[in-house]
Amino acid sequence: MNTFKRDNVFCHILLISCFFLCAGFSVYAIDYDYHFTIKCLEEPLNPQYSGGIAKNPEINDGLNGWTSFGSSKIETRTSKQGNTFIVASNRTQPNHSFSQTIHVEKNTMYTISAWLQVSHGKADVVAMIRTPNGDIPTGWAIAKSGCWSMLKGGFNGNFSGPAELYFESKDISSIELWADSISIQPFTLLEWKAHQDQSIEKTRKSKVKLLVVDHEGQPIPNATIMMKQTSSSFPIGNAMSSHILTNTGYQDWYNPRFKLTVFENEMKWWLTEALPNKNDYHLADAMLQYVQNRSMLLRGHNIVWENRDMLPQWAKDLPRPLLATAIERRFNSLVPRYRDKVMHWDVDNENMHFSYLESQTGENTVYYYKKAYDMDKTALLFLNEWGTIENPNDIDANPAKYLAKIEEFRTLGYNGSLGIGLQGHFDTPVIPYIRSALDILATANLPIWITELDVSSRPLQADYLRDVLGELYTHPGVQGIVFWSPWQPQGCFKMCLTDNDFNNLATGDVVDDFMRRINHQGLISNTNHDGYVETSLYHGDYEVIIKHSTIKHQSFAHKINVAKGKDSNTLMMKLSA
């Protein structure tokens, strides 16, 4: 049991031991702790997992287990409330702090958490692991003076041997760095998979009890029930290019797989207004008609982009008044045209990594969201960033910075719809970091979507994609996934799913296998002696076919919906005309 370190407050986090069957044997696993808080607290909470393998995690045994990293002076101090913590002072370099040596095991997932404070101001602080292969960042926090901020992260154990945990403040080396409640928890790969399976059962599926009766309402034993999911409640899509309009091979491959899409380039400003004051939406309009004819959902990508390189050529060097006018014209041209036709808008793309429009016009990015919301209240407006879950070394858009951006929006008066867009352009994924990042972002209580998922071409590309999909889908905070694999004859952005004859590549097989696994197709069962079938189904709409030996050459179809919150409902189905 885990409780607050603060007196008279008890917040219990259940650490439930579970067993699951894998390859014929049982694996014992501690439940993963999804908890995170963005609140800056007067006193830190107890360490997650009681500190895991960290020695002296609550600094209750002096400096036992801790040493100075660099030339910093380390000591313990005690708060007015009686809480003891570790302090690094006399720091002359960002990484001068306190450290602890741990033993890392290969093929192990590690989660890290800590509570941090600085002596004055605030600083971006990252937990680092020094390994024989170099130093790796594991998680971020914005540490402040006067209260304790939580850091959460993770890393892959890709070697066996000693490693060193230390902390680094990116902004200021002269501040004192304080820490407490430090945790390092290892999980085997089988334990990690157990967490994913638990999450699927809890967040993606519901238990359903079906009762088959005859025309008189009497239960029918040994009836055959065949269930086929006709639509999933979890949206999965893929970007498309304009080649979809004319290439029948592309159409035949794409259409059966995806009912959600986004245009690769055809709504972007540099394409729709290549010359000033001359809008050309013929490709976007044709593609919109294509998706509407097939009842596909559409994300709007994007209205404007803070990256100067992604502006129309003519707009890159416009003086301030003319650029502001051009932006206004862009909004007035694009948003009303596709209002009520897109489900999402990526409004001001990548505004945590770039700020060209903001710097040139003087308008904070919040201005653009207010404007988009005033123009289209039917679509969900998204921040859309790369690096947040892909790159533990990203100081601009790490999860702590993402939450700070959301807080900035609210502080500056934006109270409209908002979604968390995570592009997901992976190289070599760090699965524990992905999970911890999603834990952090989920505390915003906003829709989280993976908007541009791919893995760059490299050895194990398909394996990495499979691992990433498994982690993203099973996290309770994620509400949808869109792949960024629009087909281009000259090659895709980072990841193709097919060759130019539309035969699946290994990555395409991963996507197909993933979509088959999360959709019940051809599920067959028989009612017991009381006429019941009990099962766990992925959320969505189903067609249920019932047959019985007493009725020859005839079956009866029913439609059901399985949704979150309907767990263990009994659905009665009649075997009669």
Automatic annotation (TrEMBL):
PROSITE patterns with a match to the protein in the record: GH10_2 (PS51760), PROKAR_LIPOPROTEIN (PS51257)
Segments forming domain GH10: 220-514
Superkingdom of origin: Eukaryota
Keyword terms, alphabetized: Carbohydrate metabolism, Hydrolase, Polysaccharide degradation, Repeat
Molecular function via GO: endo-1,4-beta-xylanase activity
GO BP term (any one): xylan catabolic process
Transmembrane segments: none
Family per record: Belongs to the glycosyl hydrolase 10 (cellulase F) family.
Name of the featured protein: GH10 domain-containing protein
Species name: Solanum lycopersicum
Gene giving rise to this polypeptide: LOC101260730
